[in-house]
């Protein structure tokens, strides 16, 4: 019986030579020399060995070590034939499977690619509603043109749209700053959506409203539908179409962000005063002169200006969602006059304003003799704080509010002392 080192105190009997491992070894090789040898015990043949009672038992060993049988000590020949056959069969099967996989993969890689044929759909598989942005753009794009102006003095680009067409000629509305961007005598080229071109001439310009009308010798063109800018409200959907940075046929969308925004543009000799429609539809340089349309595809404004926070890397300012358009009702009157006579008018009250005044309202510097205001109680030194009930911040806003009217309209001017004066607007020939 072999005892492990974990329980040495429970050995109950003295082991004999038959109980020890490797019993075929000579006794001299055993680890304990206290065990009796064959010379110490003599036993007659065929009889059991008797130990006298006076003889003391052999002392019990404290540790008996049995070396573990290691797998490495077993010879290869000890495996059964069945095990050997199973191992050999597994190895052969693995080799065959690997060879088949390699050959199959090589055939797939080297085989020619098969063509795949998918069925074709017929008809309009994804129709767009007429009042969707896509539907509106499809209807309005044919009337929008790109405008290039070049001369020895420089060049400029912008947009425009057809407002009238006869059998022989057509008229295009755009911004004054687009048509005159390269100075007098410049060549103006109009490019349509199909990339065909025509040379245009200026019919007339109105710097006070930043408007101009061009003529081309091509007739029977589609004409833009003009809406009613007086019916526009904040939140209405808007779509801007034009050629920003020369990218013709660009369409962007947004809403009407505000109305009656006082916007001025130009220089000291050519200043435009606009009571503008504000929109967040993206408008960039090159959009100027293009149409701002509503959800019915009707033009409600002419894109004219943007507010920016600075210049881009290319040196041109970009959209930050603050675009301004000239209301179409204002532009319609001016365009009609320009086509008919080559010139236009704008309304006046007949006063000179002190534009350096820093207080609230517009300070009257003088009253023009013979003008509309000269027929009223309005005098120099009066401060106009309201027009038709709308607050007036400064002189610029008063001019913008008046320019939004028509000659012959009657307006009510409220002075700082509460006095209300009615003035019938006159006209100033451009």
CATH architecture of the largest domain: Beta Barrel
State the helical fraction: 10-25%
String of helices and strands: HHEEEHEEEEEEEEEHEEEEEHEEE
Stretches with pLDDT under 50, minimum 5 residues: 1-55, 60-77
- What is the class of the largest domain in the CATH system? Mainly Beta
Count of extended strands: 20
Secondary-structure map with pairings?
Blueprint: H1 81-110, H2 133-140, E1 144-151, E2 154-165, E3 170-174, H3 176-179, E4 187-191, E5 197-206, E6 211-216, E7 237-242, E8 250-267, E9 270-279, E10 291-293, E11 299-306, E12 323-327, H4 328-341, E13 345-348, E14 351-353, E15 362-367, E16 383-387, E17 390-391, H5 395-403, E18 410-415, E19 420-424, E20 426-429
